[in-house]
Amino acid sequence: xxxxxxxxxxxxxxxxxxxxxxxxxxxxxxxxxxxxxxxxxxxxxxxxxxxxxxxxxxxxxxxxxxxxxxxxxxxxxxxxxxxxxxxxxxxxxxxxxxxxxxxxxxxxxxxxxxxxxxxxxxxxxxxxxxxxxxxxxxxxxxxxxxxxxxxxxxxxxxxxxxxxxxxxxxxxxxxxxxxxxxxxxxxxxxxxxxxxxxxxxxxxxxxxxxxxxxxxxxxxxxxxxxxxxxxxxxxxxxxxxxxxxxxxxxxxxxxxxxxxxxxxxxxxxxxxxxxxxxxxxxxxxxxxxxxxxxxxxxxxxxxxxxxxxxxxxxxxxxxxxxxxxxxxxxxxxxxxxxxxxxxxxxxxxxxxxxxxxxxxxxxxxxxxxxxxxxxxxx
Length: 378
Hints:
By secondary structure, this protein is of the alpha+beta class. The chain contains 10 helices and 20 strands. 35% of the residues lie in helices and 21% in strands.
């Protein structure tokens, strides 16, 4: 049964964002255009809005579809932010210009603003715009208890749905089950169990398709002797989960079995390496060392993991060039994989919470014994 969610309280987040922007980039205000960042700062979930963060006050600008929606959401979240209506196409620029009157330098994240948009803001406003990359994304890294509650619940739902789908995988040994059939069943079950939807289009990849890390499900049928990679996550109140398991259907090529064993070993080593203070590249290196030792390092073609929260891929990163140490309260994936064109692929992924002396694993679906030989007896 789905647990009741405690509200996410955002009071003080705008103040924190302003301090980071002011101290790090020397600005007098921050223009936030990412809807994900705006949601984290204010609780607003609409599809149109711009947030101006200043030292003493902040302003959310949105259109007529969302004004009352914004007022209600910001009140519930405890956001001390003024809501202003922009009624016509050029009104947004006028409202932003008025809000920035008296500001000498305004920060913005260059990842969230097009060149054209920056030109329009620069032409309409009297202040100078200064790149201030990653201000809010950095603050989003450490999750609150309420955020962790949503991620945990999303993980439980994905675990439950995958367990329910396993009989369908068994039936593929004697029937006609496609990648799309498995995807559709998983996504239906997650909604039935209380998810708002999938975190992303569920990946189901079998046979040679499983050598493609982000394969999109097709009508390809699951067959004995193939691996089946299932990458699945649930969405709860804006927060994601992320998990991957690989099944071996019947008698498989010994190389697939070996790859599965190596990924299990590497993934376990990666999970054990996660703790506060460890640099993301170190976790990545621990997984790669296992593959290199067995001569398979060239078949690991992506990073080991990434942060998860309001976005399915967000800071921090677990990859070769990651330099930031992990911090307690961050949520990351550990997902090494091996991919061999023409044969297939194997990936195992868990979602974990970084703690001071290790990590807490959110995802609990079995992974060590996923060789499906015959339908289970009843």
